[in-house]
Write a structure and sequence with these properties.
The protein has 358 residues and is mostly beta strands. The chain has helices spanning 197-200, 206-211, 268-279, and strands spanning 25-30, 33-38, 43-47, 57-60, 70-75, 78-83, 86-90, 100-103, 113-117, 120-125, 130-134, 144-147, 157-160, 165-168, 177-181, 191-194, 214-226, 232-244, 257-259, 300-310, 314-325, 328-339. The relative contact order is 0.14. The model is unreliable at 1-11 (pLDDT under 50).
Length: 358
């Protein structure tokens, strides 16, 4: 009997930005309620299960709750926002209810990650491979330091609930996953779960994992030829599409409930996430370009009059730059380039992005 083995080469997946590279992004949780904060976008995602993608709802962040370095939740009506060496405690991140501000104890300052679990606060110092447990971040009461278990050292983000701690793992053989444990020191009762695509799309860098890495390329929209023996003046109107192809990204929001009033109209949140994704480096599935000045209105056809002079037996190629994810065109840029070279131009007509992870 002859056996044939099929080897499947996995496509390399772009990574998710770590907390240190994505300012204002964090996870927190309470019981069966989980949150992903995108302060950079002015909102947060609520879910009851990141693995199954359940009950995904987007809420706005109150302006006073934006710009935090770390976000954690103690219970369903107590959220902590750390900025520098101070902490803001609120009962609702959408409305900034019952806000109280206090200083962090010196021993609780400078952590790489903060979470609340089992009724305590945990501060992770990754460079030392330790975490500090305390019952009060202002007084550092009942504080004890522990070593992080090797399986718990490489989290991109950490969050906790009443009985468990979680960490989002770097991309691996099976894609983006998160790890669940009841002890960051011993890593007992540990499980690992995949992240639902509808949750991944909300993460910084996640759009490349669900839609495909970003691309930027020139498309030849027309070719002009002069096959005669005399110079030729070519005058004509050309039609091209310019703007945002919403149909290619509309599916991203289809399983989200947007509960943000007028902050984000339909499709606007995906637009903001797409802009962010394009700005990232190739390591995170981006193109390192700033698209803020491009037209993000629904793509429409525009007509433009052109006049060109061509020498005998020459050709002119008219190129338009476009950006997209995977195989889908998303943004059709405004500028045109004229070239007698049949190969696409090597220039990039967009300014470089200035963002962490680029």
């Amino acid at each position: 009997m002859t056996f044939q083995f099929l080897y499947i080469r996995k496509k390399k997946m772009a990574g998710i930005l770590s907390k240190s590279k994505a300012k204002g992004v964090d996870f927190c949780g309470v019981d069966d309620n989980y949150y992903i904060v995108r302060s950079d976008l002015g909102c947060y995602m609520y879910s009851t299960n990141f693995h199954q993608g359940c009950d995904l709802t987007i809420y706005s962040l109150h302006p006073s709750c934006q710009g935090g370095d770390h976000y954690l939740a103690f219970d369903n009506s107590t959220f902590y926002i750390i900025k520098g060496n101070t902490c803001r405690c609120v009962s609702d991140m959408t409305n900034d209810y019952e806000a109280i501000v206090f200083d962090l104890h010196p021993n609780c300052q400078g952590g790489d990650n903060y979470l609340s679990a089992y009724g305590n606060f945990y501060i992770i110092f990754k460079s030392r491979g330790v975490y500090r447990k305390t019952t009060n971040m202002n007084t550092d009461s009942n504080a004890v330091d522990y070593q992080l278990h090797p399986n718990c050292k490489e989290g991109l983000y950490y969050w906790g609930t009443k009985y468990y701690s979680y960490l989002l793992k770097p991309k691996g053989e099976w894609g983006i996953e998160y790890h669940k444990t009841d002890d960051l020191n011993q890593d007992t009762i540990a499980n690992t779960y995949s992240v639902h695509p509808d949750v991944l799309s909300f993460l910084p860098g996640g759009l490349a994992a669900t839609q495909g890495p970003a691309f930027g390329k020139w498309k030849c929209i027309t070719t002009i030829s002069n096959d005669s023996e005399t110079p030729l003046t070519w005058q004509k109107k050309i039609t091209r599409k310019v703007g945002y192809n919403k149909s290619q990204t509309r599916s991203i929001e289809q399983n989200w409930i947007i509960s943000m009033g007028i902050t984000y109209q339909s499709g606007a949140l995906t637009e903001a996430i797409a802009k962010y994704q394009f700005s990232l480096s190739g390591e995170y599935g981006g193109q390192s370009v700033n698209t803020e000045e491009e037209s993000w209105e629904e793509a429409t056809e525009t007509e433009e009059s052109l006049s060109l002079s061509l020498q005998p037996h020459t050709k002119m190629y008219i190129w338009q730059y476009k950006l997209g994810f995977g195989k889908n065109d998303v943004l059709l840029c405004r500028d045109l380039t004229f070239d007698d070279d049949p190969n696409p131009p090597s220039t990039i007509p967009l300014p470089p992005a200035n963002k962490s992870g680029c």
